[in-house]
Amino acid sequence: MDNHPADKKIDYRLQGKLVGHAGAIFALSVREDGKFAASGGTDGTKVWDLTTFHSIAEVPAAPDIRGATTCLKWIKRDDDVSEAMVYGSQTGYLVCWQQDDMRTKDGKTARFKEIWCRQLNDPSEITGIAFDESTNRLAVCHLGGVFQIYSLSAKMVLKEVLSKKIAKCTPAAIAFGEIHGNERELLIFGVHCGLVYTVRGLEVSTAAEAWNLGCKISAVAVDHSKGIMCIDDPSTGVHLYRLNGAERELLNSFPVCVKKRRRVRQVALADAGRVIVSSSDHGTVYVRSRRAGNLLAKLQVDTDEFVQTVTASDIAGIPTIFAAKSCDMSGSNDIFVYLQTTKTTHRFVEKIGAMCTSLVWYIVVFAAMAFVYDNWGI
C-alpha cells in the first residue's frame, strides 16, 4: 500500500550534519546504494561518505571558470555495477566524476576522478540533468533554452544524439517520463511559461502541443513506479500530477507559506513515493503524506534563512531527508540529515525500557529476600 498505516505516526529526527561547505548549496543527490552523497554550490562540488559523515578528500579540483555547481545526479548504466556522478555548472559545463579507489597499506581509500568535461551549446547555467538507465541516455538543459541528449557508452563516453533550442522557454528542469515505443519520452519544464514540452525520438512538441500546467515551475520530482510527478510553484506551493496515461491530471495541491518573498524551491519524493518533501523561504522543510495530504513533520533547518535545496533517499532501508540553506552567505553551510522514525518504533523502545525497569525491581527484591534469609535464618 502507498499510505502509511493509521496507527503509525511518521516523524523525523536529526541524524547529523555534513559539514564542510562555504556559501550557498544549490544541489544534493544520494547514490542509489546509500554509501555516498554529492552536493554542490558556490564553492564547487563535494562527495560525502555517509557511513562517517565526512567529505571525501580525494576529489578533482574545480577550475574557477566553471563557476558554481548548480545541479548534479548519480547515474548508472543498466549493464554496470558502479555509479558515476554528473554535475552541471553556472557557466554551462557538464562534468562527470567516477569512483577510483586508492589502495593503501590500511586498505582502500575512497577517491573520485574526473573522466570528462564538456561545455553545452550556447552555454548558460545548467538547470537540469536526467538519466534513463534502460536506454543509457543522459539529458541536460540550461537557462538559454537549450536541451541536449547524449548516449552513454560502456566506457562512459558521451555521444551527442540531439541538441535543440526551444523558443521562448527557460527550462527549470528536465526528466524522463512514461515509455512510448522502445524508450521513455523526455519532459522539459519551462519555469515562466508553465509549459511541459515532450521529446519523443527526435521530435519536440510545439508550444501549442505542450502540456500547460498553468503555473510557474521551479522544480520537479518524478516517480515512475507510482506514475506521479510533483512540481513546485513558487507562488502557491506543491502540485501533484498523474503522469501515466493519456489523461494527465492534477491530483492534489499543497500550499507552502511564503513569509519573505517568492523564490525558487526544490521538491522531493521520499519513502517510496509515499511522502512529499518541500523547502521554503523561512528555514522550514515540510514533510507531507502524498495520499492523505496531511503534514507529517516540519524540519527546522534554520530559524529564518532560505532553504531551497532538498533531496531524499533510503539509507539502509530507512527513509532519509537531506536539506541545506541556499541563501547568499559567506560562512559555513551545513547539510542536515534526517532519519524517519515511527510511533511503532517509539512504542517498541518504551516497552523495552519498561521491561528493563521491571527486571531491575525483580532483581532488587530477590536480593533483599536472599539477604534476609542469610542473615536472619528465615
UniProtKB/TrEMBL annotation:
It comes from the Eukaryota. Keywords: Membrane, Transmembrane, Transmembrane helix. InterPro entries: WD40/YVTN_repeat-like_dom_sf, WD40_repeat_dom_sf, WD40_rpt. Pfam families: WD40. The chain crosses the membrane at residues 352-373. This is WD40-repeat-containing domain protein.
